[in-house]
TrEMBL record:
Alphabetical keyword list: Membrane, Transmembrane, Transmembrane helix, Transport
PANTHER family linked: SOLUTE CARRIER FAMILY 45 MEMBER 3 ISOFORM X1, SUGAR TRANSPORTER
Entry annotated with the keyword Mitochondrion: no
Chief subcellular location: membrane
Protein name: SLC45 family MFS transporter
GO cellular component: membrane
GO molecular function: transmembrane transporter activity
Membrane disposition: Multi-pass membrane protein
Bilayer-crossing regions: 48-68, 80-96, 102-120, 140-162, 182-200, 238-258, 264-281, 310-333, 353-376, 383-402, 408-429, 441-462, 474-492
Database matches in SUPFAM superfamilies: MFS general substrate transporter (SSF103473)
Location in or out of the cell: Membrane
Source species: Antarcticibacterium arcticum
Length: 506
């Protein structure tokens, strides 16, 4: 028994919601730093204001994945989460540009990012649920196409409203310009309607059908089963938690006594919290307590080997992306155009050009989305991903040497190639190594390696820019460029010949 091949338009419909998701995500990425700075944030404070969003994703995605694996309603398994997340995200997009103070904007970003994660996380598992393995690369590439297309329009909206419609892109101090406000309003509507299209036009296999597909799959291609001793596994979990806790406490103490930047506490206090949770779960498991909390925390230790290897690739590539999202506006306005006054026409023109730059890299991603699988078939997923990431890293590094708008656009071509690959190839490499019963959960855990580098970037980049680079944001992009090149090289270490990896405890 096998899943049937879906038609092009069926795959189109099941991926269409990503158009709206990325529409909102692009508005968030391209304009949030601008909103924060308009409301009075200093350059060195902007990363910490972003921190709530990735922390929320770190918590939300595995939980949503875990519960969506176990959900079945009249709307199906994943689609209820698409719809709930779309409603909440659309409301947040309407509220964000009307924030009266900096802290209201930061809180709204938190809510908006959590809501986007509720919609976005099940979409990755949706491909694994509905498509046979031979069509999954096409499925993820279709998502990449809609991500790129939605982001092109979403990123460019403030520029379009200013230059085509005539809305003002400047405003009094502490007020968000009308061009940004109306961009967010349109984004909220598009987000909801696009996701609603996927909810209405797509169907899902029932849990019984999915179980039958998995059984047939294992009969044809048996899983690589790793049998682990439960006591040893519990002991390993406790020791991992203990090491995390001690490391976090020691480094936090060093930060305190040396009066280092307070943002560094977030990373290492977070490490203490995770370590304590691991130790608590190990004690619960020793008493044979089994619930959602213990399963979620334990399965993190039993990740498939392919997933562990991809984790490092994801870490450095997303660290680079987050440095770009945080600092491109400040780097372009300050380093390239020579202004730091957010009320000036030059600053706002430069900030609008950043939205065009972001639109370009997303447009390039949409354009090459279906070309990368062709190259991967002729070479390999690993080689293709490596080339794409190196191109992205070189694009970020080149911004330091650029002094005009056209050069900035050219730099984004390399970033766009990397972005297209980041959105598809790692998931194509990973999906074959995941058991279908835990597809949603592990796709959620895979998000850790998107979120953790964002937390690290938000924690240390502000410190590095302030302490070592004289508050010049362009150097954050240089760090990001080298990180992306490193992630490309690490791709060569990933073993993709493991079809399925299941951990079983004695």
């Amino acid at each position: 028994m096998q899943k049937r091949n879906l038609s092009f338009w069926e795959i189109w419909n099941m991926s269409f919601g990503f158009l709206g998701i990325q529409f909102g995500f692009a508005l968030q990425n391209a304009n949030t730093s601008r909103i924060f700075e308009t409301l009075g944030a200093n350059v060195e404070d902007i990363p910490i204001l972003w921190i709530a969003a990735p922390v929320t994703g770190l918590v939300v995605q595995p939980i949503i994945g875990y519960f969506s694996d176990r959900t079945w309603t009249r709307l199906g398994r994943r689609r209820p989460y698409f719809l709930i997340g779309a409603i909440l995200s659309s409301l947040a997009l309407f509220i964000m540009p009307n924030s009266p103070t900096l802290w209201v904007a930061a809180g709204t970003l938190w809510i908006m990012d959590a809501s986007i994660n509720i919609s976005m996380e099940p979409f990755r598992a949706f491909v694994g649920d509905n498509l046979p393995e031979r069509q999954r690369t096409l499925g993820f590439s279709m998502q990449s196409f809609f991500i790129g297309t939605g982001a092109v329009v979403g990123s460019a909206l403030p520029w379009v409203f200013t230059n085509w419609i005539g809305l003002s892109n400047t405003a009094p101090e502490g007020i968000i310009p009308d061009s940004v406000k109306w961009s967010f309003y349109v984004g909220g509507v598009v987000f909801f309607l696009a996701v609603l299209w996927t909810v209405v036009k797509s169907r899902e296999y029932s849990p019984l059908q999915l179980a039958a597909f998995e059984k047939a799959r294992l009969e044809v291609s048996p899983a690589r089963v790793e049998v682990t001793n439960k006591k040893a596994n519990i002991r390993n979990q406790f020791m991992s938690g203990l090491i995390m806790t001690i490391t976090g406490l020691v480094v936090s103490t060093v930060i305190y006594y040396n009066e280092l930047t307070k943002e560094l506490y977030i990373l290492f206090v977070g490490l203490v919290i995770i370590g304590l949770l691991f130790m608590i779960v190990s004690q619960l498991r020793s008493k044979d307590v089994r619930n959602g909390f213990t399963i979620i925390m334990t399965d993190m230790l039993n990740m498939p080997a392919t997933m562990k290897q991809l984790a490092w690739v994801q870490f450095f590539s997303w660290f680079a992306l987050f440095s770009m999202w945080i600092y491109t506006t400040q780097a372009v306005t300050g380093h390239v155009f020579g202004t730091t006054d957010p009320t000036s026409v030059l600053y706002n023109d430069a900030a609008d050009w950043v939205t065009i730059m972001f639109g370009v890299y997303n447009g390039v991603a949409a354009a090459v989305a279906f070309l990368l699988p062709v190259l991967a078939r002729r070479t390999s997923n690993k080689f293709t991903h490596m080339l794409a990431l190196i191109a992205g890293g070189l694009g970020l590094l080149s911004i330091y040497f650029i002094s005009d708008k056209i050069g900035l656009i050219m730099a984004m071509v390399g970033v766009g190639i990397a972005w297209a690959s980041i959105l598809s190839i790692p998931y194509a490499m990973l999906s074959g190594a995941l058991p279908s019963a835990k597809m949603g959960y592990y796709m959620g855990v895979f998000n850790f390696f998107i979120v953790i580098p964002q937390i690290v970037a938000a924690t240390i980049l502000g410190f590095l820019v302030k302490e070592f680079f004289n508050n010049e944001p362009i150097y954050a992009l240089i760090i990001g460029g080298f990180a992306m090149i490193l992630s490309g090289l690490l791709t060569l270490r990933v073993k993709t010949n493991i079809k399925l990896d299941i951990s079983v405890q004695k």
